[in-house]
Design a protein that fits this description.
heterodimer; A: 114 residues; alpha+beta; Arc Repressor Mutant, subunit A; three-stranded antiparallel sheet; two-stranded parallel ribbon; 4 helices; globular; B: 684 residues; six-stranded mixed beta barrel; six-stranded mixed β-barrel; 22 helices; 19 strands; elongated; disordered C terminus
Chain lengths: 114, 684
C-alpha cells in the first residue's frame, strides 16, 4: 500500500470525468474502476471521491439520476453533460501537453548528464 | 438546480446523500463478504476505506456551495427560538431599539424630504435657474437677482441650449366668488409648465397666443384656491374670475402641491399680457427665470451662451445693462439655513440611538453571562469561535431588524405630528414622506445597531479555559465582563449628559426667545391684507383718499382702538431695503449701507406699542419723513449724534430723501438689523 503514490493535484476530476464518459455509472463503480484502471499504483482515497462528484455535479459537468442496478438496488448514476464533455476534452488535452513537456524535460536532463 | 432550490430541497438532498453513502458501504461490504470476510469485519473495512461516512457527508455538503446560507438559516431559526424563550427580554430590547430607530428615522425623513430629495419634476438635473449677475452684488447677503423682462425675452429668443420660462409675483383682489379676497398670484410665461415638466390637474396650460398684450384674459387656478372656491368641481373650467376688476376665463387647474418659487400661487395669469411700465424697462429686475437644458446641451454651454447674450445687451443698453450679465445654476430647492439645524437634530437623535444600543448591549451582556455555559458546551463539541460569534451576531442583528421594523412603523405615524410641531414653517414640508431612501436608512441603521450592540457580548464567546467555565457554578458578572459592563454604563452616562446639556441649552434659548421683548406689542393686534384696485393706483390723490377711507371705516368698527397701515408686517414678511446715509454728503449709491424699511401710517406706533426714545413720531403732516426705529445700541449710533440729535437721511434712486425724525431703540432684540419706518407716501 505504501508504494502507491498520491494522486497529483487536480487530476481526480479529470479521472472521474474520463470514467463517467464511458457511460452512466454509480459512485462505487467509479471507485472500483479507478482502482482497477490505475492498477493499484495510484491511491484514490474513496472519501474524496464523493465530494468531488458532488462538486462536479454542482458545476454542471455531471448530472445524476436514481436508477436500479443489475442487482435490483437503487443507486445514483452519474452522466456527463455537454459542458462536462467539453471540459473533459480541454483537460485531457492540457494533461497530454503537460506530460509530453515533462517527458521532454526528463530526456533533456538525461542527455545533459551523458 | 439553483442555490435557493438546493436550499429549499435541503431535506431531500440530505436523504439522497445518506442513501448514496449507504449504497456504497453495502456494495463494498457485500463484495467483501462474497470473498469470505465475516459480516462485521466487512462492514468495518468498508467504513475504513471510505474514511468515515459522516466526514464524507460533511465534505459533500461543503461541496454544495450553500453552506454559509444553511448555517445562516440554522442560526436564524435558533435565534428565533432563543428570542421566543425570553419574551420579556425580547420585548424590552425591541421596544428600546424601536424608539431609537424610530426617532432617527423620523429625523432622517425630514432631512431626506427637505435637503436630499430632488425637485419634484421629471429630470430635475436638467433644470437650471437663471439669475441676473453683477460683480458688486452680494448674492449671499441679499439673495440672487432676478432678470428684467426685456432681458428675459432676449435670452429666451436667442438661447439655443436653454428653453427659458419666467414668472413674476403679483397680488390683487379677487371678487365675484363670495367675499372679495386678497390673493397672491404669479404671472407666468406660457411655457413654464412644459419647461418644468408639470401636467395640469385639469384643462390646459397657457398657449403662446395667450402670452401677448391684448390677448383674451385667461387664468389658471391654484389647486388649493380651486378647492376653496369651487370645491374641486370641474365646472370651474371656463368659469370666470374677477381679478382687480378684470374678468379672467379659467382654462386650467394647477396640480395639487404645485409650487412656483417656493410658494403655491392662488392664481396664474399670462406674463405677456401685462403692460405694466416696470416690465417694459431693463431697469427693474422682477422676473424669476427657470430653464430646461435642451437635449445634448450642458450647463457650461448654457452659461457661455448667457454670458455672450449678456455682453451684447451690455453694449447695446449702456445705462441699464452695463456690468450686467446672467448666471446659470442647477435649479435647487430653496430651503434657507434650515439645513444645519436638521443635521444637528439628526446628530442628536443619533446619540439617542446610541444610548438605546448601549442599553440593549448591557442587557445582552447580562444574558451572555448566563449563557456562558451553553456556549462553552458548544465550543467543546467542536464549534469554532468564528461560528459562535456569527451565531451571536445573527441573534442581535435579528433583534435590531425587529426593532427597526417597529421603529419604521412608529416613524410612519409619528412624522406628521413632528412636522406640524416644527416652529415656524419647515420648507418643503410636503416632501417629507416615507420613500426608499428612508427605508434603506432605517434598514442600515437597525442592522448597524444590531451589530454594534451585539459585537461586545458576541466577542465574549469562550476560547480557552473551557474547563473552568464548564465547572464554574457562579453566574455573576465577573472580571472582563464587569469591566465591559462598566464601560457601557460610563458611555451611556456620557451620552446622556451630552444630550441633557444640549437639550437644556435649547430649552434656555427657547425660554429666552419667549421672554424676549420684540419692541412691539402684538397682543390684541389683528392683521388683514388688502390691495387697492389698479384703477385707483393711477392717481396719487385717489390712493390717499382710498387709504384714508379704509382707515376711517376700520376705526368705526366697534372695539377697535387704533388703526394703521403697514406695507410689511414685522417679523413675518418683508424685505424692503433702502440705502441710508447719516452724513451730509450723499454717498454713491453702491456704497450706501442698506437697511430694512417699512412704510407705515402715523398711528402705527400706537397700534404696535413702539416706545419712542428720542425725537418724535411723524404725523399726518410729515409727507416724506422717516422715523428710525433701532433695535440695538450700536445701530442707534449710526443715526443719532449726541450734539445734533437725530440725523439720518435715506432714500433710493431719484426719490426724495427722507429725514429721520425720531429713534426708538432697545438693548435686546431678536433681530439686530435696522428697521426703519418711513412715511407711507400713500397714507401721508
Amino acid at each position: 500500500m505504501n508504494a502507491k503514490s498520491d494522486l497529483p493535484q487536480g487530476t481526480l476530476d479529470l479521472l472521474i470525468l474520463k470514467v463517467v464518459a464511458l457511460g452512466p455509472v454509480h459512485g462505487y463503480a467509479i471507485a472500483q474502476r479507478l482502482e482497477q484502471v490505475s492498477r493499484h499504483v495510484v491511491q484514490v482515497p474513496q472519501g474524496s471521491l464523493y465530494p468531488a462528484l458532488h462538486r462536479l455535479e454542482n458545476r454542471g459537468l455531471l448530472v445524476a439520476d436514481w436508477k436500479e442496478t443489475e442487482t435490483g438496488r437503487e443507486a445514483k448514476f452519474y452522466r456527463l453533460t455537454a459542458k462536462g464533455r467539453a471540459q473533459l476534452e480541454t483537460e485531457a488535452a492540457s494533461w497530454e501537453r503537460l506530460t509530453e513537456a515533462v517527458a521532454l524535460i526528463m530526456k533533456l536532463s538525461e542527455g545533459g548528464a551523458e | 438546480m439553483n442555490w435557493w432550490q438546493r436550499l429549499l430541497r435541503r431535506n431531500e438532498m440530505e436523504r439522497q446523500l445518506e442513501k448514496e453513502m449507504r449504497f456504497h458501504l453495502e456494495q463494498h461490504a457485500s463484495e467483501l463478504i462474497a470473498r469470505g470476510v465475516s459480516f462485521a469485519e466487512a462492514q468495518r473495512r468498508a467504513r475504513i476505506t471510505l474514511g468515515g461516512p459522516e466526514q464524507v457527508k460533511e465534505e459533500c455538503r461543503d461541496a454544495r456551495g450553500t453552506r454559509w446560507l444553511e448555517d445562516f438559516w440554522q442560526d436564524l431559526r435558533y435565534a428565533m427560538r432563543m428570542l421566543r424563550q425570553r419574551p420579556g427580554f425580547t420585548a424590552i430590547a425591541i421596544l428600546t431599539l424601536a424608539l431609537g430607530v424610530g426617532a432617527s428615522t423620523v429625523m432622517f425623513m425630514v432631512v431626506n424630504g427637505v435637503l436630499l430629495r430632488p425637485l419634484p419634476y421629471p429630470h430635475p438635473d436638467r433644470l437650471v435657474a437663471v439669475h441676473g449677475h453683477t460683480e458688486t452684488w452680494n448674492a449671499k447677503l441679499y439673495g440672487e437677482q432676478n432678470v428684467a423682462y426685456p432681458d428675459f425675452l432676449d435670452c429666451q429668443r436667442e438661447s439655443r441650449s436653454l428653453t427659458l420660462a419666467g414668472s413674476i409675483f403679483n397680488d390683487g383682489t379677487v371678487s365675484g366668488l363670495g367675499d372679495p379676497e386678497h390673493v397672491d398670484f404669479q404671472e407666468i410665461s406660457s411655457n413654464i409648465f412644459s419647461v418644468l415638466g408639470v401636467q395640469l390637474a385639469q384643462g390646459r396650460a397657457f398657449l403662446p397666443e395667450d402670452d401677448r398684450p391684448g390677448a383674451a384674459t385667461v387664468a389658471i387656478l391654484g389647486y388649493t384656491f380651486w378647492e376653496r372656491h369651487f370645491s374641486g368641481r370641474a365646472d370651474a373650467l371656463s368659469a370666470s374670475v374677477t381679478l382687480d376688476g378684470r374678468l379672467y376665463t379659467v382654462v386650467g387647474i394647477a396640480p395639487a402641491g404645485f409650487r412656483l418659487r417656493d410658494t403655491e400661487p392662488d392664481l396664474l395669469t399670462p406674463l405677456g399680457q401685462d403692460t405694466a411700465k416696470f416690465l417694459q424697462s431693463r431697469g427693474p429686475h422682477p422676473v424669476g427665470v427657470v430653464a430646461r437644458l435642451n437635449p445634448g446641451a450642458t450647463l457650461a454651454q448654457a452659461q457661455e451662451e448667457l454670458s455672450l447674450i449678456g455682453r451684447h445687451l451690455a453694449e447695446q443698453f449702456k445705462d441699464t445693462n452695463a456690468d450686467r450679465s446672467f448666471k446659470a445654476e442647477q435649479l435647487r430647492p430653496h430651503v434657507g439655513d434650515v439645513g444645519s439645524t436638521l443635521w444637528l437634530l439628526l446628530g442628536a437623535v443619533g446619540l439617542v440611538l446610541l444610548i438605546a444600543c448601549t442599553n440593549v448591549a448591557s442587557l445582552l451582556l447580562a444574558r451572555a453571562v448566563s449563557r456562558e455555559r451553553e456556549l462553552a458546551i458548544r465550543s467543546a463539541l467542536g464549534a469554532g469561535r468564528g461560528r459562535l460569534v456569527r451565531q451571536c451576531l445573527t441573534e442581535s442583528a435579528m433583534l435590531g431588524l425587529f426593532g427597526g421594523a417597529l421603529g419604521v412603523g412608529l416613524a410612519a405615524v409619528g412624522f406628521q405630528p413632528f412636522v406640524a410641531f416644527w416652529p415656524g414653517t419647515l420648507p418643503r414640508a410636503e416632501e417629507v414622506q416615507l420613500d426608499w431612501r428612508v427605508l434603506l436608512f432605517a434598514l442600515s441603521v437597525s442592522l448597524a445597531s444590531g451589530i454594534v450592540f451585539g459585537l461586545a457580548p458576541a466577542l465574549r464567546a469562550p476560547v480557552g479555559k473551557l474547563e473552568q467555565v464548564l465547572r464554574a457554578r457562579g453566574r455573576s458578572v465577573v472580571g472582563s465582563s464587569r469591566r465591559l459592563h462598566s464601560t457601557f454604563v460610563i458611555s451611556e452616562l456620557a451620552l446622556a449628559v451630552v444630550l441633557l446639556v444640549a437639550a437644556g441649552m435649547l430649552g434656555r434659548t427657547l425660554l429666552h426667545l419667549t421672554s424676549l421683548d420684540p419692541g412691539v406689542n402684538i397682543r390684541n393686534v389683528l392683521v388683514s391684507r388688502m390691495a387697492l384696485s389698479p384703477g385707483v393706483l393711477a392717481d396719487n390723490g385717489r390712493i390717499r383718499a382710498a387709504w384714508q377711507d379704509v382707515l376711517e371705516r376700520a376705526r368705526r368698527v366697534p372695539g377697535v382702538q387704533s388703526v394703521a397701515i403697514v406695507d410689511t408686517f414685522p417679523m413675518r414678511e418683508g424685505n424692503n431695503t433702502l440705502g441710508y446715509w447719516p452724513t451730509a454728503d450723499v454717498p454713491p449709491e453702491k456704497e450706501r449701507p442698506l437697511t430694512l424699511a417699512t412704510s407705515v401710517s402715523p398711528e402705527y406706533f400706537n397700534v404696535m406699542g413702539i416706545p419712542l426714545r428720542q425725537g418724535r413720531f411723524f404725523n399726518e403732516q410729515d409727507r416724506s419723513a422717516a422715523s428710525v426705529w433701532r433695535r440695538t445700541k450700536r445701530g442707534r449710533k449710526a443715526f443719532v449724534d449726541a450734539r445734533h440729535g437725530v440725523r439720518a437721511v435715506c432714500g433710493r434712486g431719484s426719490r426724495r430723501p427722507c429725514a429721520a425724525l425720531g429713534v426708538g431703540w432697545r438693548r435686546s432684540g431678536a433681530d439686530s438689523r435696522t428697521v426703519l419706518l418711513s412715511v407711507c407716501p400713500a397714507a401721508g
